Amino acid sequence: MTTAALFTLKKKRTATQCSALRCLDPACDYAPPGEPWQLPEDVPLCNKHLGQVLTHLESGAPEQPSTALAVVVEQVPILADVQVPATWVQRASEVLVEIQQSEQEAVDTVAALAGVEVQNHAELVQVNDYLRDAKTRRNRIKAIEAEVLDPLKQILKRIGELTAPAKKAWELAEGTLRGIVTQAALAEAERNRQLAEQAAAAHAAGEDAATVVGRMTTSTDLQGTTVTFVWAAVVDDVSQLPEVYVERRPNVQKLKEYAASFQGREPAPLPGVSFIKDAPLRVRGK
């Protein structure tokens, strides 16, 4: 049995209080063995968390190393160089259960913090301890998630390497053909324009313009391809553009550098800018 499907325990535990992390309820009379956490001693728990442990122990199936993903990879010779742990499926199941069950603890923590205001330094120390614990939990989720995702990423990477040359070659072929069709459509449009002028001139001279009109063609009859003629804007000199066609955007990086140059002092005012004091944190997990 593993800890994947169970809650995390406090590092410092007492016989009178529940050992589940952040739980302040008193421990009940029965303390289950610490086997699910790979601990030699019994673990004091409240009634709620004891029920979770008993449910976990009753529903837990014997761990059978699964080779499902590894077998799939082995059956595709071209992926033979990708290493997949034989126990990947079992571990993926454990990781997903642990991460999903930790969500409720996070939700409960956020709910418990509603309206909390630090009144003194001792409370600040306690809240900071909770902050570091939250950071640790989030780091663990990232770590065990990566443990499960890495083999999949290796497979995707290898498949990508194998398919990239073909995709690139066909993209080049498509791009080349697009260019040919586009140039042909533009040439056709210009030819039609000239024929239209000739037809108009023939009509004005009292001649039969039907022969000239009959020489006109259209690219709209291409099966599966739609040709639309548009005018693309090419900016030759941005300084001559009317203001309505120019975007002004703040250089956020430059503003950060400007504020940082005052080394903690309030920055000198800048037109159109307000400086708000903040206190970003660098938090290390436990």
Overview of the structural elements:
The protein is mostly helical. The chain has a domain at 1-62. Helix content is 50%, strand content 0%. It has 6 helices and no strands. It has helices spanning 47-59, 68-74, 88-112, 121-204, 210-214, 252-260. Helix 3 packs across helix 4 (121-204). The longest helix is centred in the middle third of the chain and has 84 residues, at 121-204. The two termini are 25 Å apart. 8% of the residues are buried. Residues 1-5 and 61-67 have low confidence and may be disordered.
Question: Concise description?
Answer:
The chain has 286 residues and is an all-alpha fold. It has a domain at 1-62. The protein has helices at 47-59, 68-74, 88-112, 121-204, 210-214, 252-260.
Topology summary:
Blueprint: H1 47-59, H2 68-74, H3 88-112, H4 121-204, H5 210-214, H6 252-260
Helix pairs in contact: 3-4
